[in-house]
Amino acid sequence: MNKNTGMLVIIGICLLVLFMGLLRQKAEFLLNFLVRGLLGVIGIYLCNMALAELGIACAVGINPFSVLTVGTLGTGGLGLLYGIVFYNML
């Protein structure tokens, strides 16, 4: 094995390690997004039920855009969705 081949092998191994780290971070991000989205849908459902029990005619729809908002922003997104609905009620 000459010097150039050895350098290419080392560079290849380094790129492989970086790629594996990148995949792990993306998997963690995707898992966090899915968990926040699922908990957000449950939160929207429970808030809609609680507001209906209190007699407040306000409901956030469960659709891909609201799931995307809550999945990306978390509880802040849930507050944002209800803030928009309450603002539209005024």
Entry summary:
By secondary structure, the protein is mostly helical. The chain is built from three helices and no strands.
Structure commentary:
The mean pLDDT is 88. It is rod-shaped and about 80 Å long. It has one domain (27-89). The protein has helices spanning 3-53, 64-73, 75-89. With 90 residues, the chain is mainly α.
Number of domains: 1
Q: Pick out the low-confidence regions.
A: none
Distance between the termini: 76 Å
Number of helices: 3
Strand residue content: under 5%
Percent helix, as a range, is over 70%
Largest sheet: none
Provide the gyration radius in Å. 23 Å
Mean pLDDT: 88
Structural class, from helix and strand content?
Answer: mainly alpha
Tally of extended strands? 0
Indicate the overall shape.
rod-shaped
SSE string, helices as H and strands as E: HHH
Topology:
Layout: H1 3-53, H2 64-73, H3 75-89
Helix pairs in contact: 1-2, 2-3
Question: What labels describe this entry?
Answer:
single chain; 90 residues; mainly alpha; 3 helices; 0% strand
